[in-house]
Amino acid sequence: MQHASIAAVVASLTLALSPIVTTAAVPVVQRTPRPLLALSPCPDEPTFKCGTLPVPLNRRHPDGRTIPLHVEVFPHTGPIADGAVFTSEGGPGASITIGGQHYQGPTLLAEVSKTRDVVFIDQRGVGLSAAINCDAWQHGGPFYSSAAQCHDQLGDTANFYSTTDVADDLEDVRRALGYGKIDLLGPSYAGNDMLTYTARWTGNVRSIVIGSPAATVGTDPFYAYPPKAWAGMLTSLCRRTPVCDAANPDPAGTLYWLAAQLRSKPLKGTGIDSHGVSHKLTVTENLLANGIMFYADYVGPSEVIQAATALRHGDPVPLLRLAANVDPANGPHDSGTPREESRGHWLARTCVDQPVQWDKGAPAATRQRQYSAAYKAEPAMYGPVSKGAWAAPGYAGYQPLPCIASTWEDRPNFPVGTKITGVPALVMAGELDFGLPPSVVRIAADSLVGSKQLTVAGSGHIPWLWSGCAADLMQRFILTHDLGDASCAQVPESPVWLPGSFPLTTAAAPPARQLRGPSAPADLRRAATVIGWTLMDGLQEMASIQGVTSAGLRGGAVTYQDGQDRPFRFDRARFTRDLAVTGALAWEGKDVDGQFTVKLPNGSTVTGTVHGPYRVYGAALTITMLGRSFSVPSH
After folding, report:
1. What letter does residue 2 receive in the DSSP assignment?
2. Closest by alpha carbon to 174, among 200, 209, 211?
3. Which domain-ending residue is among 349, 371, 399?
4. Which residue, of 69, 109, 262, 507, has the fewest CB within 10 Å?
5. Containing domain of residue 387, as a range?
6. In terms of domains, do 157 and 79 share one?
7. CA separation for the pair 193, 186 (Å, rounded)
8. Which residues have CB under 8 Å from 253's CB, separation 6+?
9. pLDDT, tens digit, 9 for 90 and up, residues 396-422
10. Is residue 535 included in any domain, yes or no?
């Protein structure tokens, strides 16, 4: 969130509100002026200014209780002050002040912050704003019973964390800091904050930019948008990479085959996860839909088609690795400390905001009957995935929401059909956002009449965190209310590596292209491909897991040793059964440089080097060995 000139704090706190323009009446809450919010240098970063604003806990029926809102301001860096940008974090429940503000203020919003203050707010019940701590629910207790315990722990405050309350908190902050019209920046569920603020306080909004907004108003309670979009997304992802495109002519059809195969015959076996730990697994359609397809910044989706093809040919290892990384037996979902992410806030916000298939105030038995009837009426399939796999209860499923375990108020952000006019608006979607696809983002955009809608190629969740182009366009729109030339958004910037296939042996790998040296036999060219893919696979696994130890697909280890010139160490790592790579790599920015030793399938031992760009669209690594150089696509 950004914040206007601190000198403007002396401005009047009783600014007139413009009428809200909607198709249905949205109540305007009358406010009384509040004291100015005193700011002082933040203890951990004095260039930021911190303050706390008490706001009514119960906004519908104020009773004197308050909740402290933590606010941090990055003051404008230039000589001219021109208001403020307000921002917060999504989740819901994630804290913007856990460190994200230190990147967003001076770096992500460098141009905007020359003239605008950036105001960061932890929403009520989040971070330093009295984070809700429901211990069992926070640390992965039983999905429904621990959610009910959290509701009971909150008592009469359970319904006080709606997005309408959060939006009115933002208005109190605006007044307390003395700003006029403000710009709004909302990623993910914070897009709900900003959209709802705009609906309730239209006259106080200069512009709004939301990225991958998690729409709630007007959405399908079964939230079937992601599985319906996956086939198209996987096709787009694979077509963008020549080695994947060449080896996988029908990604959509392969996904349909895999879902049907796991539906009729779940895969049982032992998978080795990215840390090298063994898991006895049953890979179900449910695990595919609710686990693999959401693994690590679409690393799971980037490999699932190739893994399905391998399974089709009798090789389950790649799919078992993907499943091992999301194995529910790894333990319940533990969200760590409430300071970073409050699962209690997620529950309280979700259960009052979201549309559900039951009457939120009905008795438990009635709620269950209503959900069951709604489920029965649903179509059997959501794209390639059955409703039984997608709408599955518990940790590995989405439905029914844990809210069904308790009674809640129903407080939509604004009435269905609301149309907001007169506010410059930009709504961004990530082309490859597997959880919030563009079809969901369009629902939010439809509430903002005349909004600019932009799908950013190759981007996942929250496009401006994936694409420098998207970040530049976001800032340009805040400053000028105009996108200008947005053609750069059609050029993907942040690839992951997609293997063309998962060959069992070197002989099954495609041959690399030779660049120089004496003509190489086909088996040496195939070995060059496997060496490159082994290195790329190891780096990708290291990038997508938490820790410093990873494993080769079919054996060996990859470790990270800090302080070394080439800190990525490969110890007999295997991508195929018959070729093991040992060596050391440096990976800085987009460049890879290293050396390796391999024992080839013919028994000879060879040393060589690798260098070139990695994770760059259209790029290739150069593998040099035996006086020859080969090109292996690194994307």
Report:
1. B
2. 200
3. 399
4. 507
5. 222-265+274-326+357-399
6. yes
7. 7
8. none
9. 567 899 999 999 999 999 999 999 999
10. yes
Is residue 613 within 8 Å of residue 565, measured between CB atoms?
no
16 and 150 assigned to the same domain: yes
**Whether residues 437 and 304 fall in one domain:** no
Tokens (6 digits) for 313: 């040919």
Q: Is 462 exposed, middle or buried (0-12, 13-18, 19+ CB in 10 A)?
A: buried
Confidence (pTM): 0.90
- How much helix, strand and coil, in percent to the nearest 5, is found in the chain? 35, 20, 45
- Across 387-444, the runs of DSSP E, i.e. the strands, are 425-430
Residue with tokens 């260098």: 611
Q: Tokens for 37, please give them.
A: 């919010």
The span from the CA of 278 to the CA of 465, in Å, is 33
Q: 540 and 584 in one domain?
A: yes
Report yes or no: 303 and 243 within 8 Å, Cβ to Cβ.
no
Q: Which of 372, 363, 361 is nearest to 400 (CA)?
A: 372
Tokens of 68: 């402290």
278-307 burial, b if ≥16 CB within 10 A, otherwise e? ebebebbbbbbbbbbbebbbbbbbbbbbbb
256: exposed, middle or buried (Cβ count in 10 Å: 0-12, 13-18, 19+): middle
Question: Are 238 and 216 part of one and the same domain?
Answer: no
Domain-located, residue 347: no
Element (H, E) at 375: helix 364-377
pLDDT of residue 30: 33
Under 8 Å between Cβ of 3 and 179: yes
Q: What is the pLDDT of residue 280?
A: 96
Of residues 463, 439, 362, the one with CA closest to residue 403: 362
Confidence of residue 497 (pLDDT cuts 50, 70, 90): confident
Whether the CB-CB separation of 498 and 525 falls below 8 Å is answered with: no
Residue 287 falls inside a structural domain = yes
Tokens of 507: 């002989």
Edge-to-edge order in the sheet of strand 557-560: 513-516, 628-633, 620-625, 605-613, 591-599, 579-588, 568-576, 557-560, 549-551
Has residue 25 been placed in a domain? Answer: yes
Q: Are residues 69 and 163 in the same domain?
A: yes
Per residue in 419-446, pLDDT (tens digit) is: 999 999 999 999 999 999 999 999 999 9
Based on the structure, what is the number of domains in the chain?
3
Q: Is the pLDDT at 186 greater than 60, yes or no? A: yes
Helix (H) or strand (E) segment spanning residue 559 = strand 557-560
Sole residue written with tokens 């760059």: 616
> 110 and 206 share a domain?
yes
- Furthest-apart CA atoms within the chain: distance in Å: 85
Domain finish residue from 458, 490, 522: 490
Q: Is 45 strand, coil or helix?
A: coil
The model's pLDDT over 212-260, given as tens digits with 9 standing for 90+, comes to 999 899 999 999 999 999 999 999 999 988 889 999 999 999 999 999 9
Question: Would you give the DSSP letter of residue 217?
Answer: T
CATH number for the domain including 126?
3.40.50.1820
CA distance 615 to 591: 9
* Distance of alpha carbon 229 from alpha carbon 275, whole angstroms: 30
Residue 502 structure tokens? 């998962």
Residues 466 and 525 in one domain: no
For 103, the 3-state DSSP assignment is: helix
Side-chain-side CA neighbours of 326 within 13 Å: the count stands at: 25
Task: Provide the 10 A C-beta neighbour count for residue 327.
Answer: 20
CA angle, 531 then 537 then 542, to 5° = 130
For a pLDDT cut of 70, what percent of the chain falls above it? Answer: 94
